[in-house]
Amino acid sequence: MNNLNHLAIGLKGESIASQFLIEKGYEILKTRWTYKHKEIDIIAKHGNILVVVEVKTRTNNQYSQPEEAVDIKKQHFLSEAVEAFIQEYNDFDEIRFDIIAIILKQKEYTIYHIENAFEPI
Questions:
Q1: How many Å apart are CA 112 and CA 84, to the nearest integer?
Q2: 48 pLDDT above the threshold of 60
Q3: What is the model's pLDDT at position 2?
Q4: Beta bridge partners of 18
Q5: pLDDT digits (tens, 9 = 90+) for 102-118
Q6: N or C: which end of the chain has fewer CB within 10 A?
Q7: pLDDT for 89
Q8: What is the distance, to the nearest Å, from the Cα of residue 5 to the centroid of all Cα atoms in its chain?
Q9: Pairing of strands 94-105, 108-118
Q10: How far is residue 66 CA from its own chain's centroid?
Q11: Is pLDDT larger for residue 39 or for residue 42?
Q12: CA terminus-to-terminus distance, the chain
């Protein structure tokens, strides 16, 4: 798969994930928010909880599940980036880190929402 296809798949997954969260009552605050070289796919609000969402999209799960790609290094990056975000937006009682894993198959998809997937590092 070339980088263009990889990017297109990722963007499609982020769009699906955003719509999924909106339908579950989340307010999307930012998508693809960046701090230095770190990016948070989706920053949402659910009640008074700030929800940091890492979206992993794959076209198959033959070798691994998409959520397995959120390793310790990625968790650390997300933790650092959200620290910068809350300097500007600090009206939340708590912060939660979620993963949304999506398997895209032609025009269908399967979505898994893993709430509280990891603790900040």
A1: 27
A2: yes
A3: 53
A4: none
A5: 999 888 999 999 999 99
A6: N
A7: 79
A8: 19
A9: antiparallel
A10: 11
A11: 42
A12: 32
What single-letter amino acid sits at 36? K
Q: Which tens digit of pLDDT belongs to each residue from 50-75?
A: 999 999 998 887 667 778 878 889 89
pTM of this prediction?
A: 0.89
What is the distance between the alpha carbons of residues 83 and 45, in angstroms, rounded to a whole number? 16
Query: Mean pLDDT, to the nearest integer, of 85-100?
Result: 88
Residue found by looking up tokens 């719509």 in the block: 19
Question: Rounded distance, CA 105 to CA 9, Å?
Answer: 11
Question: What's the gap between Cα 83 and its chain centre?
Answer: 16
| Whether 113 contacts 56, CB under 8 Å | no
Q: Strand 27-35: give its sheet, edge to edge.
A: 27-35, 38-46, 49-58, 94-105, 108-118
CA 79 to chain CA centroid, Å, is 13
d(CA 55, CA 115): 12
Residue 70 class from Cβ within 10 Å (0-12 exposed, 13-18 middle, 19+ buried)?
buried
